[in-house]
Fold these 2 entries.
Entry 1:
Amino acid sequence: MEELSLDGDQMAMGQTDEHVEERNGDKVVTEGQTGDIEKRKEFVTPAAGMEFESYDDAYNYYICYAKEAGFRVRVKNSWFKRNSKEKYGAVLCCSSQGFKRIKDVNRLRRETRTGCPAMLRMKLVDSKRWRILEVTLDHNHLLGTKAYKSTKNMNPGTKRKLQTNSNTETQTIKLYRALVVDAGGTSNSKANAREDRSCSDHPDHLNLRKGDTQAIYNYFCRMQLTNPNFFYVTDLNSGGRLKNVFWLDARCRAAVGYFNDTVFFDNTYLANKYEIPLVAFVGMNHHGQSVLLGCGLLAGETKESYVWLFNAWLTCASGQSPQTIITERCKILQSAVAEVFPNALHRFGLSHIMRKVPEKLGGLRNYDAIRKALVRAVYEALKPFDFEASWGFMIQHFGVSDHEWLRSLYEDRARWVPAYLKETNFTGMAAARPGETLNAFFDRYVHKQTPLKEFLDKYELALHKKHKEEVQADQESRSSIPTLKTRCSFEFQLSKVFTKEIFKKFQLEVEEMYSCFSTTQVHVDGAIVIFLVKERVLAEGNRREIRDYEVLYNRAAAEVRCICSCFNFYGYLCRHALSVLNFNEVEEIPWTYILSRWRKDYKRTCIPDQLSNCNDATDQIQRTSHLYRSALQVVEEGVTSVDHYKAALQAIEESVHRIHDIEAVML
């Protein structure tokens, strides 16, 4: 990375002063007045995903940004490792964040805090770099040079101290200028990598670096040679330039046939303006692991691009639409999903919404109390009525009825609040409990400035690692015998059926049946009986409280449904439903509630819906896809040992001979 000089032509900034003062235990950085404000270079806005070599680099960058924007910075929180005292996390905020403590209100100093929400949260990551995790840019007060204290009235000692820091200031600006280059800034330097980019403010084509198009072409050619079932499609604009791209390899294509019942569409990198405008279709396999179902690069967040991408994926999936599709909360996405997947249930990712709470509500006076009330309303409400009552209390009690974000969330509540989604099948991707999240598939492989060429290498590395984890989980599930923790027949029944990881989750529900201390029949309507199950749960502050769960049971239809909707959310029965079955002396779980997608032998026995519904299977594309997927399963299991290899090879040779026999008969 080239270091840029700071002469007057490149950076039209006046002399800047800085000093640090302690206030209420927070470190406040007070900037001096800058010269020639109109000519100043505007800094790149902080964004989640930016990385820095050290804490000081990240800290100085935010100070420079604050200086340009016209506000002061305070270190709100810092976290250190217990043994080494090495710093591993920090929150920087606007100096106007928060409010005075009650005991300080009567002091003579004028109140300057306004509860400003502007902040930056960063963390030391595995690469030993500091990564920005969360940013709030909005302020609730005026910005500008008046936010800075003039140095005219400073004593000579302070001024001399500031002058000694001039080298640090220069390094900060140099760091920032390098960051501008990485982010595709607007430097006029010929050495600037910015000239290698085909940049446009309009999403008419992909914003690629020099050589990226060739890299994509080379990658696709190589994959088609080594991966016969590799699929890709490109979208060109009117000028013949690359606009959108979609691809998936053989394993991903096979996974679409197995695990496309619930799909998470992840546009995190595109929405957060990463170097690569990457989007991904993600599912969950029979071990509860995330599995890639397709990738794309989009020119922009437009309905046109999303519709094109969804149609490309649908073509690859042989027209088989997912039952449920999860996306971020976005009107453009909502419209595109409705057009391409009209029969799918479109839901907003709950964890994505809750992740935005600090950014959207952090500036409110009673933020901590509001956040707790919101969490209770969202996660603890079992029925829509309960949610609306808790929400209404929160809005009125804290006086936030005019808050635009909360208002819009309430309008969309039927797409993200668990209490409204009881009939939605999420098959393990609901993230409906506190702390559960839908993580980006390439989270450890892509950062803000990852170039496309590097990503294409990391793409194969990521898929290889995920495949290795799945193969290992398959072997463990087939070879290991789970240790039973109870004498419950349900536990023994599913220990022979479910994969190891899914059985562990179900086993926890069996163990927690003992926290359900009362099962009472409360209503009878013919064959349908409503039971009330009482459970002791661990609440806030490590205190125990009792909660009631309604469970519907129909012995004739072998139906059992709990109000907590664990089966629809996670794919297995909950402790409450199991308690009702046990109460009614049912020895085995009805097969309706044993999803085949969690079985150890799922891939061996699964038949694609599009083929099972087609008597003559005349569609050559579907036949090719199904045969390749079946053959891939033979290959993957055949390489595990010499004996497996010999058996697989013999089976293939026998299959070829049988096909030749059919040809001979037809002739």
Entry 2:
Amino acid sequence: MKISFVFLLVLSLALSISSAYSQDFISCVESNSANASSISQLIYTPGNASFLPIWQFAVQNTRFLKPSIPRPSIIVTPTDESLIQTSILCAKRHGYEIRIRSGGHDFEGLSYTADVPFVMIDLNNMRSIDIDVAKRTAWVGTGAVLGELYYSIAQKSNNTLYFPGGTWPTVGISGLIGGGGTGNLLRKYATAGDNVLDARIIDVNGRILDRKSMGEDLFWAIRGGVASSFGVVVAWKLQLVPVPEKVTVFIVNRTLEQGATEIFFKYQSLATFEDRNLYIRSQAASEFIGNTTQKTMRIIFQGIYQGTTNELIPVLDKVFPELGVTREICQEMTSVQSTLVFFGRPSTTPLEILTNRSAIPKSSSKTKSNFVRTPIPISGLREIWNKFFENDLSGGLLVIPAGGRMDDYSETATPYPHRAGTLYLLATSVNFVGQANDTTPVSLRRLAWLQSLEELLTPYVSQNPRESYVNNNDLDIGVGAANYKEASVWGERYWKRENFKRLIRIKAKVDPKNFFKFPQSIPVFKRRGLAQ
């Protein structure tokens, strides 16, 4: 009884102290704001009934919903830039770190969790979209998600313009661009970050900067170097790209018994295909054969062609006849309808679903990523399939092809370095379906299997460095940042050496005290010369 009483007393004291600190922050914001009464309606603490629903709303990976996950001390939901400015000022004054959440798709939950007291700036209210069809540009609030952007572009341009972003509708525009951003138009128009014209960012001193006032170094850094390492981006000016009024989509399913291994081997060279209008991603997983205990692999090839079926068929007959695409399985549709298909909905689904964040499913998973520069041989593919047969059907594999327009950029054009010579991005994952959380015995076995798959892939993926995609961030590869040697373990995997060193130099200039920090953010070293 005494132990329980002491525990409750300590807990009560901790909550009281936390509440006092939170009130200090809120008082600071109110005293530095023109309209304190309206500001108070945009700030939430754990004692507020809306606190938990707001925090949970954009937790897209549900493995971070377990009770042990640390939550913010305060949530700020700004409707304009001024509240962000005062939140930065008051967070510094009262010893809070900042986390910035747009769509909530951070693979390690870093935009809404932390092991230290922190203020979460939730940008959900700042999602205005202003499209200029004649100039093919759009100013987009950083709280907007891809579904909202694609819907708006399609409506405004009558399906003649689009943006080369990702395929999942609830991905935030800022997180996507901040890590580079890949999608179905990668081979045609390169990354999302390559198609940004300007931005507005609030720096550590509360200044609002555009491309001209921030300078080309910082503008370079935020388009692939994780923008939240440098400040709070509040809006992006995007270059919209022309697309046909109708594109062609096809889906091909093949199992090992249907020659999937040989087809996949040929598919790996898609990056070398000349026609940039052709993009085919693939997904693979193991499954049981009928009602037997024997397993096979099923590979799904999802293709999109920037043109008609009549234009597509001769291309595939020439470069990839093994895939067996026929006119009967081709569907012509608008680009925005293709987005529906690529996240698993029929093309006839009402487009308004793209603007309904609550209608898009969430997942519970862990992901790792690599880049492949040389086709994995048949023998290697069979090794990988055999590893999948050891899994309990919770594992998956996703391939994002490169090449085309990507080969036109140097690997230092933006921080995203995975350019010429890259065949594809290879993402591997496990889900935690059927498990209460990611720490059950079954979940731990799945994570161990994923790590063993990562080790098996070693001879088949890029080396020196072994490249990874920062938008598929993975804390398992390292978090140390005391010096360059420590940080390079993970930093060079995401950005390669030249880009990582440049990012470190820019960070030291714009945020020398490292206020905007989190695991795997761009580091600031205590002694000069450590980034050399």
